[in-house]
Every structure is written in structure tokens, then in C-alpha cells.
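User: C-alpha cells for this complex, please. No commentary.
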Amino acid sequence: MIGSPDVVAFTKEEEYGQSYPDPWPLPEEFSVPLHPLADSNPWAKTSYAKFTKDFILISEFSEQVGPQPLLTIPEDPKVCGTFDLNYFSLRIMSVDYQASFVGHPPGSGYPRLSFVEDSRVVLGDSKEGAFAYVHHLTLYDLEARGFVRPFCMAYVAADEKKIMLQFQELSLRFSQASECLKAGNRRAFAKELQRKLRDLEYTHSVLQREEGLQREAGPQRMYSAHAVEKANELANVEKSIYEHRDLLKQISSYHRRPRRDPHAVACQKCMSECLSECEVLLDKYAKLSSPFSYSEKGSRGPEGQVDDQRGEEEPEEDEEEGVKRRPSYTPQLIKAKSAKCFDKRLKTLQELCDETFYEATMELLKETEKSFRGDWCYLHTRRLDKALRRKQKVANFLFEEDLGDDDEDEMGTLRPFCAVNHAIDNFVLLNPPPIVLGPEPLELDSLEPPDPASETSHTQESELGVGESHLESSPSDQTLETQESSEETKGSVSSDKSGLDQAENLQSLASTKSEAPDPYSDLTPDPDQNTDMERESSSDDMETTAGEDEDNGGDQTPVSLLEVVSELEASREDEYEGVNGSALLVPIDTACCMAQEGFLYEAPEVVPGLSQGSPPQPCQTLVVNQEPQALLPLQDDYTVGSPCSESPAAGLELPVGLLGDAVSRASLEDGSDCTMSASTGSDRAASPLGYGGMVTLRQRKKAGQGALRFVRQYPFAMQALWCLLSGRTLVVLGADEGRVRRLVAALALFVPAPGKCGERVQAWLSCPFTLTDLQRWKLIGLQRVASPVGSSMLYSLSRYSRYISILDVDQKTLRCPPYRDQLLANIADHRTYIRRGSTFFLHVQSTLCHLTAKAFLFTFTHHLHLPVSFAEGPEVVEARRRCFLHEQLGLGEEDSQILLYLSQLITQRYLQPDTGSSAAAPCFSFNYTTSVLYKI
Amino acid sequence: MLRWILGGREAQSSVEKSPVLCIGEEQPKNCFTELQVLKGHFDIVRFLVQIDDFRCASAGDDGLVLVWNVETGERLQELRGHSQQITAITTFTCNNEVTSHTSLITASSDRSLSLWDPDTGNRVQTISDLQSSVKCLLVLERLGLWLSGGEDLCVWNKDFQLQCHRQNHSDTGVTALIELPKNCIAAAMDRQIMIYRLSVSTDSSVSLAEIRCLSDHNDQIRALINVTDGLFASGSHAGELILWDAIDWNILAYEHILWEEPQPSTEIRMAAPKPSEMSIQHLSTNGQLILAAVGSGLYVYSVLTKSVMAYRKVAHDSNVLHTMLLSDSELMSCSEDGSVRMWEIQDLPLPAEPASAGFFGMWTFSRSNKQSGPPSKKVLEVPNLRMLELTGDLIGHSGAVQMFVSFREIALVTCSADHLLILWKNGERQSHLRSLALFQKLEERGGL
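Assistant:
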């Protein structure tokens, strides 16, 4: 029995695994973890969803008609298909998660605004096949019940896993959108209050005047029913004024409230602006009301005097108003009773929010929608890829897309999204988010160990991360804790959720003074008024006053509620791409080309300080003013991504800075068309993303197409590519700008270390160049002109001919040193069977990736550069190096030059001082070889 | 070479260089395969001075003096103070018992003299409101004195105190100063060389006595150098090279460099035929050889045999501005045409040079020779004539290369009218150094 082959085989298999471990295991940080869902068959689960792709739904719980869908992103009705939005809205809004307190809270005479934190839940409707991340929020509306209007934003997808695994990221993105929307809403609300107050003051003055007249007319000590009614009305108006003033005060104190929600970080500048705006208003109305309240204290006798005062005050006020605000606005009388609840028209979402902020929110949501396109596998792969490339910092700069070295710096910063582009100066330093990724915390943790370099500075954070991820692994615990904490915090200022402490501390630090949440006592009305208060208030909107400062976050959430643990940064500076795109957009002349490339970009002059060595910080500071566009996005310009480098962004919520963001957005945008079906492409056809600023993957693929055509068209393409790869500046000479630019864009794929801003490429130059230009640019598009300028240009061409190779587009010739080796024959085969640009691009990328790896190996192999023993002379080392290159790597003489150049770049990069770029000028290496002229 | 660029539509001759001097792109003997462009000046850079093994100072028409680290290319100091162009710069080394400290003395057209500390960038001493601007400086380190020459000849001590002053009788003033044995000074003034004797009396007062006036040159003296302890040489605008005895100031040799007149050719000239340029722009020596930059040509004169050793009439496309003998057989020259050329003296059979007269005439833009009358044809027929072979050229500057300083294997520094300095380095050596630094850093970091 024991000899039974089955048994042996079975046990053997187990033993093999243990006793013979892989002799060359990859270091853990470089290993690619298996896809977490690898065991489940992706085709097994068919979706019954009635919508074609994921979308964002915004719904409202209308006090008139109940839950109703407001809009979807994208707005295309095809997206939802036959999916019943109404029904789904009902599902997601049927959670009355706020339990708003109606009426006056005890101990306070005034209606209170409820400051409700957002809540985040994942809801599912398995019957419909729809799952949603739902973000509930409330907006203020003076006319609404309790002054609040509940809304929700939902990310609806067919795949539950996708939502669960992307929860953090979704939560972050939606929190930003929500904060933005709420900020805009507060502004709109304050404005509305102001208008209302003005109306009330006006009504009050009119009533007073009427009453005074009546009293004069009527007999003394006789109160007609009419007079009593007037007096009541007056009292109601007064009460109403108080209430509204108090509301204004409340709304202006909004910012001082400690936030429990770690994601709720708003732009400090916006906040303080809004705050000061409110304070101005408050001051104004406080001043106005002082005579008013004074009059209340006194008997009715000096009413006339008061009237006089009013009379004096009002024109002044009007003047002030006239100067300050809309001069056309005339205060209106407010009727005692306003329309019934169901008669009035509720404001739309757009009206509830300041326009700028609304637009920004919509942009943000659109961006979010875009960034989550693709299925979970795709998103996961991209994230893995990014995480892996982050490990290989030494040689990545050569051909890979830049991930931004600023990551470490950015790690600790929490940058709020700001609709009006208050840029960088409002950083809040926070711990970076721990990486929490649903069910596989361990695996993903291993994916993201802190970088050795950053380890010291971020130990704390990594600890935190680990801790949190353990917590996170059981979502139900989390929910419990959330509930507890929300109960705890009901009346108190601070919550003691471990993860949030710091956020709060900082938050409260950031806000100028933290006030107690109940600062209203100073405005308690006089006793006289309290009696009045007993009466029914004069206007309907006053009747329903709102709730306690309380939220009971997860109490009734049905499916699963993952409370957000991590604090996150991330600002999606949407604005800038538009601006920067349009600034540098260069349309090609369609006549002369095959419309392969959409737009070509102009690589702008590079600020020396921005050159590749410089740390990200200076760039950041350049951005401070309102137009970060000009300089900044170039950082990531023209980087060349690896095949799988669709990369970043959605990633592990690694805080991507401004720059990183740019890339990520760009690449996300593009990445989607890798996996998504063709139908998704349509709405992005004319995407104006980032032209000029950065080159998207999409553009790079276009460039791949151009490169493919170049390779197929020119038999000497190999020589041209060799020039670029071996560091010899290639000048593309031609009379037709479009043609030259296209070719430069295509060839730029092959420029090693093109720099963050693509500073090594000059797409179009129409003046003679100098040596420094050659040093700076590795690929130059040069205009051929037949004029005196042209001759001086030709002079510079011939003068510096030893440093350059010249590709003449018009005559189809190439003048460069001869190249006879085989390495590039692989990518520059003009009989290639590759037909598609993107395929060729991937092919090129893999070749370049190989080259990079070889160069890395060569650079860091000690004995190839330095003697092993003292006895060895430089010749021995030299011989060893040659042997390595020729025999071990199998490279010819010319191929070795590529490797030597790449190695030199790596060395120079590695030696760059960590802080700041060195004062020394860059080196320019060359060699003296004869050139030959290649013709077609 | 350009034909293909121009597409055969234009004439190439105006751009193309002389075929004789075009070495081509294959230069196996040229080890300068890496360069660094140093920016900082904003006008013509005329002077380079070596401070120590790795530092040099550059000065030019913008009145700035910049101190550079030649190894790294870093700018170490920026010495600001002169309001006008620098006319002369020299180093001044004070030797204490323990250390020696090198300072810089500069003279400017703003009629001031300054002493700088290149370590700190401080202006240690300054004298302004001189009666005339100083054209040349000479430091006598042995005596702790230095001289400034211009319209006046002044002697200063190291504390910038005027020791002695001598008015000049010549219009042009002193253009060059060299030190001779026995406390003597030779000063070039127009066509004459004046010999002065410096006497330091017991109370350390200094007096300057005129001893002799050598007026054997027929034209303005352009260059004056010490060859050995007992010899000095002078060159004039008319191409006269005179070798003098430094002790008794007699003429040891007189060489009148006269290139043969170019043959009229059938080509269309840009201008009327000019007499060839014979001005001696610069002299350099290593004790055995004297290298003279004559017009756009080079001329190697052997001191031992007192004869021409090698020459090249058209070494550059334009006037040669500075020359240097690197060794007994290697030399280097720079020119107004923006290039630096490296030459080797090789034993080659005659004829030394196939003269291409047409180009020669075309590329000579310097002012016409003052000498009246047709120059006598003198053929340089010397039995052991050798050949100057071009071994490499450095092209980078877009303006005239004014001067260069060699730091041996570290680098060659060139300065130019295009406001730039270029450090030319040996790429292989640099690569090796970088590798060293890389592994050092790797070790410091303890890994990648």
C-alpha cells in the first residue's frame, strides 16, 4: 500500500514544495502577488445588471416626492439602459440615516442647523445586479424642512467586489466631491440668509411704521383686533430676524467645528474666505439689530424715536448694500404665511450650490467616474504595476513614466480639493493613509512596505497602516466601533478613534480657534421676546427647525458599512488640465497628414530649475498662484510608460501629488480603453486632456503608431534609433512643421531619460542652435529655411555635425555614424508584422525595459568598473568590462554604446545630490566617429 | 559635406572649411570626449588664470571675475567690484613659513586695481582713481613686489602701497612686462623694449632705473616672453621674432617670418588680395621651442638650432589668439574662428604643406599689414623641417576662443567671446571617476 504510486506522488508533491525552495527567489518587494480573485473564475459570475457600465448617480430624498434620481454621470441615458433609477434611488435613499431632530433643541430658543457628517455605505441589490457605494450628505436650504436637504451620491457598479475593494478610494473621492459641494452650498446658504434677513428687516420696518400710524390714529389704550394682529406679526418678524441671524451665525461657525470625518478636509483658504464673508454679514446684521433690540427693551413709548433711527439706518444700509452688492435688489415684504409645503418649488441641486463649486464638484465626479473605469482586475493590475515600479527607482527614469519622486514628500500631506484653485499653501500635514484593501490585507501590505529610503520618516505611518489593516479585515468590528464612537461623540467635541485623533488635532490646530459647538448663548433673547416666541412663528419656514448636532452614522445601514479609517490626501486639481491643455494646443494641419495623431504638443522651454535633477519641491512652490498650469504639469511630460504602465492614480491611494495626479489622470483616462470595450471610447473621443502639459499614454500610443510608420518607411530607422539610444542628439530637419513635429513625437519614445518635463526633446526649432542646446536636447525638430537665417542654421548644423545626427525629412536621408549591430533590428525591423501602433509601442517598451535592466546590472556591478585587487590595472578592468558587454550580454560594439550611455545616465542620476540640483553644469559626452549618409 | 543638407541647390564654398584643415570626425588622438559648459559671464571672457591644481579664475569685459572648480565645473566665487572690463589679471602668491596663499590681482578699465581672496570672494585691497588704466601686471614674488604697466609704470608692495612710479614717454604705454635676472625688468613699449633695474635700498625704499632701450623691432611689439633664465623673446606686428640675451640684452637671433605671397588664383576673391598676415599674436615656449602664433598660422622655432622647426601657414581659419606647448611634440592653439586645435610635430617628408592659396586669402580678415613695400620672398627652406599635423580639434564655442588653460589630465578650460567657458575633459577618466563615486555612495547608503 505504501508503495502505491498515488500516495507517493501525492506526498512527494508536498515535499517538493518545501524541501526545494526556489534557489533564486525574487526579493519580496519585487514579487507580484497573485490576483486576489485568482481563484474565482471571472466568467462564472454573469452580471444581471441592466446597465452597461458603471456610473455615478446623484439622488435626493425630496420632502415632497420622496427619493428621486437627479442626475447620472456620465449623462448618457444609454449608460443606465433599462435600469430603474427611481427604484434604485428609493433603495439607496430609503435609509434615513440622519434621524434629524425636528424642532428646537432643549435649552435653546432657536432652531439649530444640524451639522451632519457624511455617511458612507455600500448597498447592494442583488436582484437587480447592482451594487453601489453610497455617500449620503445633506445640504442646507432655508426653505427646506429642518433647513436640510438630504442627498446622496452613489457609485453604481455591477461588481460588488470592485466596490468593496475600492472602498477607500471611492470614499476619498466622494468625500472630496461632497466637501466641495457642501462648501459651495454653505456659501449659497449664507447668501440666501442674507437676502432673507434684508427682507425681514424691511418688513419689520414697514410693519413698525404701520403700527405707529395705527396707534396715532386709534384711540389711546384701545387695541383693535387689527392692531393686535399687527403687533403679533411684528413680533413674529422680529423673532424671525433673530432666528435668521442666529442661523447666519451658525453657518459661519461651521468651520470651527471639529470634524469627525477624516476625509472632510476643505481648503483652508476657501474656508477662511467664507468665514470672513460670513463674519462681515454677521457684523452688519448685528449692528442693524442693536437699535431694534433696544427698542424691544423699552416700552412702546419711544417707538417713534426708534422709527427715526430706523429711518436713519436704512438708507445708510441701503447705500451700503447698493455699493456692495446688487444695486437692483429691492427688499421685499415677507408675507406672514408663506406657501404651503407642497406648493413651493424646492431649489434644484444646482441652485443650492455656488456655481463655481458646483462645476468643480461635477468635474470631480466625472473624473472619479473615469478613474474607475475598467474592471477590478484591470485596476488591480495597474496598482500592482505602480507599486512595483515604485520599487525600482534607480533606473525607472530612463524610459518609464515618472511616478513622481515627490511621493515621499506628498505622503504626509493632506491636500484638500479646492474648487477655486487655492493652490498649494494650504497643506495640512497628516499621516498618510494606511493601505487597507478589503479582504487581502496581508498580501497588499506586502505590496506596500515603506520604502527603505522613507522608512525612517514614516515608521509611524507604517505601523499605523498595519494596525489599521488588521482592524479593517473584519468590517463588522469596524461598524460597531463606529457606532460607539458616534454615540460617544454625541455631545462632546473630541472623538477618540485612534486613527482619527491626529487628524482632528491637526484640524483643530488648523482652524484658528476651536470653539465649543454651542456658542449661541450670547444671543439669548430678552424675556419679552420669549413670550412672543410662544406664539406660532410667523413664517412656515421657521416652523420646522432642525436637528441636533448629531449623527448616528451606521445605525441603520443595511448591507455593510465600512467606516473610513484612513486619512487621505489627494487633490484632484481638475481645473488645470483644461487651462494648460488649451494653452499649448497645437492643432496639426489635417491636410498634410493621415490624421494619425490628434494633436501635437509643444514642449515648452524648460525652466532650468525644473530640470530633472531638481526635487519636486521647487515645482510645488511655483504653483502657488492661480495658474499652476504653465510650469507644472510638464513635470510628467513625455515620459514613456512601460507596457503595463497605464499606472497610477487609483492605486493604493498613495497620495499622488499634483504632478503624480496629472499623470495618473492622464493615464487613467487612457488606460481605460485597454480593457473597456470600444463603446466606452466614444464619449472621450475629443478628450482635451493635458496636451502640452503632459503626454498621455494615449498619445504615446499614437506616437507608437508614428514610430511604427517611421520604422516601416525608412530603412535606416535602426540607425536613427541607435543615435537616440546612444545619446547622440538627433536633429530632424524639415520644411514642414507638422511633419517634423509628428516625427519628433514618434521618436521621442526612444529618448532615454526624457526628463520629467520632456526637457530633452525640442519639437520645433526655427533658429540656429548652440552647443548648450545640444547639451540640453537629445531630439530636436529643426526648421529648414531658405534665407539668411537658414544659412546660419546650416552653418551651425555643419559646425556641430560631430555631435549630432541629422535626419532630413524632406530628402529622406540620415547622416549618422554607422550602426551594424543586431540589438535594434528587433524593434526597427521595417518588415515587421506588427500593424498596430499600440502593439508596437508595447513591443518597444519591452525591449527598452530589457535594455534598462541590463544597464542597471552593468552600472552596479562592481568589478566591471573598479579593480578587484590592487594588482589590477585599468586595462584589466577595461577588458573585463568589454568581455561582459560582448560575451555575457552579447552586445556588439555599437550596442555597447547604448548600454554605456544608459549606464552613464543611471550613474549621473544616482550621484545627483539628494537635495537640490548640483551647482555644476551638466556633462555632455560624445565621441569622435565618422558619420555616413544613409539614403532611402 | 553640406551638399546633401543643402540639397545641392546652394554653393557650399562659403561655408565649407579648407579641406587641408578639416580633420574630420574621426579623431582617435583626441581624448576630450566630454565637455561642460560653464555659464556666468555676460560679455567676452578674455582671461583665464590658474589658481591652484583645481581652481581657475576667468575674467572678461563684463568686469566680473569668476572662480571655478575645474573638476566639478562648479562656480565657487563671484568677484564683483569692477565696473568696467578687466584688462589684466594675475595671481599673487604669498608664501608664509607654513602655507602659501594665492590671491588675485586684477586691473580694470575703470582705472582701479584690486586684490581678491579667491577662497572667500572678498576684495582685500583696492586702489582706484589711477591716472590711467593698467594694461599689464607683473608679480615679483621673490621681492614681494608687483608692477603695473600702462601709461605709467608703477611698483607696489604687497600691501598695495605705491613704492615707485615712473612716467612714460611713449604714447602706447607699457604693453608687456617680464622679469629678467639681476632685478631687471623688461617692458615692451610700442617698438621698443625698455630695460629697468629695480633697486631696493636698505630702508626698503624701491627705485626704478632705466638702463637700456632696445629698439630693434620695426613694428609694434606684440609679445614678450621669458624663454629660459638667460633668454627672452619678443615678437612684433611685422612678424619679427627676436631672441635676446637676458643678461646683456644682445640680439641672439633675428627671425623675420614672412609667409610666401599667395599665388593669384582663378577663383573669385572676396576682397582684393592682401599681403599675408604676419603679426605675431602670441608667443609661448617650453625652454627649447618657441611657438609663435603668426596671423592664422603657427610657427615653431627651435632655440637650440636657432631655426624654424615646423610651421603651418594656415593653421586656423582666422587669427590665432593663444598657443601652448603641451610637450616637445604636442601643441595646442585657439583662434578667432572658435576652435581649439591640437597639433603634433611629426617627421614627415617635404613639402610640408600644400598651400591652398585661395582659401587662405579668403579667410584672412585681419587688418592689413602695415609694412609698406612688397615683402621679400623668403622661402623657409630648412633641412630638418618637420611637419605640424592636426590631431584633433575642439568645436564648441560660437565665438572667438580667447584663451585656454590646461589642467593636464583634469581638464582643459577654454574661454570665448560667446561669454562661455567650456571644460573639456577626458570622458573615460570622468566615467571612471563617476563609477568610483557611485560605489562609494552605494557603500555609504548601504545598498540601493
